[in-house]
Amino acid sequence: MSTDAGPAVIILPALNAAVKAGLAGRCRLMELEAADIRNLPTGVVEAVRAVVCVGSFDRADMDRLPNLELIASFGVGYDGIDIRHATARGIVVTNTPDVVTEEVADAAIGLLINCVRGFTKAETWLRAGHWEQEKSYPLSTLTLRGRSVGIFGLGRIGKAIARRVEAFGLPVAYHNRRAVDDVSYRYCPSLIELARSVDTLIAVVPGGASTDGVIGAEVFKALGDRGVFINVGRGTTVDEEALIAALGGGTIAAAGLDVFAREPVVSPALLALANVTVLPHIAAATVDTRAAVSQLVVDNVMQWFEERCALSPVV
Ligand code: NDP
Questions:
Q1: In CATH, what number is assigned to the domain containing residue 44?
Q2: How far is the CA of 79 from the centre of ligand 1 (A)?
Q3: Among 176, 293, 296, which is best to mutate for testing ligand 1, by the most ligand atoms less than 8 A from CB?
Q4: Distance between Cα 150 and ligand 1 center (Å)
Q5: What integer pLDDT is reported at residue 4 of this predicted model?
Q6: Which of 66, 202, 257, 302 is most buried, judged by most C-beta within 10 A?
Q7: What domain range includes position 238?
Q8: Residue range 186-202, pLDDT digits in tens
Q9: Residue 62 lies in a domain
Q10: Closest by alpha carbon to 118, among 134, 142, 147?
C-alpha cells in the first residue's frame, strides 16, 4: 500500500490502523514487512526518510536506507533498535513514554494483588458452582499486608508503581544503576541486595544487554519463601528456567507476569504451575492508552518533518 503525498515513510504492517490513518495523506506511506525492505529497488530506498516500527528495527535494514532520518517506534521499549548505531548515523529514534505510565502501574498493582490473593482462581471456583456445594472458598495463604516492596527500575513507571504501593501503606525500596534524587525511597546499590531486603519484587526495567537474564536463581533465593515476584518490564530480564524452579520448589511463593522471554510463546512448564498468574502483555493495553500511544507516534513523525524536532526522542 502506498499513498503519494509527502515524505516517504515505511510503516511495518504490525502498526495499528490509527497510526496508519494519522499518517495517510500526509506522508507517502509504504506498508512493508522488514523482509521487503531488502528488495526495495534503487530510487525507492533513497527516498525513504522515516520508518515506523514496534520496538525493533534491524541494524542492517537501517543501513539499507541511506537517507533515513527518523525511526519512530510504537511503545516504550526499544531494545530491538541499535540506538548507538542510529545515533552514529544521525538517525533520530523516538518512543512513546509517559502516555502509558499510569496504565502500566495500575496493571502492575492489579497483577500483584491478584497474585497474592488469588482472585482469578476464586472467580473460576465460583463460576464452576463450587460455592453452592462447598459453602466457602479456602483462605488465602498470602496477603499484601505486612509486605515490603522492592522496585527494580525506578523510572517513570517504577515511580508510578511506588506511589501506589505507598498508598497501600507498604515500604518501598529500589535498585537502579544510579540513585534517584527526587525520591525518599531506600536505595539499594545492587539487585541482590534489594531482593534480600524485601519480600516482594516488582521488575520494570527495560530489556537489552545490561538486564538480560539478571533476575535469576540467586535473586529468587534472596527473596525467600514468602517472596512474590512481579514482572511488567521485559521477559528477557528473567532467567525463566530459574523462575520455574523457584516457583516449583517453594524458593519463592508466587509470581505475576505480564511479559515473557519468548512472546507470544509461554513455557508450558511455567503454565503448569498453580502459583503463577500470567497475562498476555496487556499492561498498557486499553483503548484510551493505545489511542494516546498511536497519536504520539503520528505527532513524532509529523513534528519531525514539519519542525525537525521530534516530541519524544529516546536520547
Ligand atoms: P524509564 O526509562 O523511565 O525507566 C527505566 C528504569 O530502569 C530507570 O530508572 C533506569 O535507571 C532503570 N534501569 C535501566 N537499566 C538498568 C540496569 N541495567 N540496572 C538497573 N536499573 C536499570 O522507562 P519506563 O519506566 O517508562 O519503562 C520501563 C520499561 O517498562 C520499558 O523499557 C518497557 O520495557 C517496559 N514496559 C512494559 C509495558 C508492558 O506492557 N508490560 C508497557 C510499557 C513499558 P538507571 O538508568 O539509573 O539504571
A1: 3.40.50.720
A2: 11
A3: 176
A4: 14
A5: 63
A6: 202
A7: 101-278
A8: 999 999 999 999 999 99
A9: yes
A10: 142
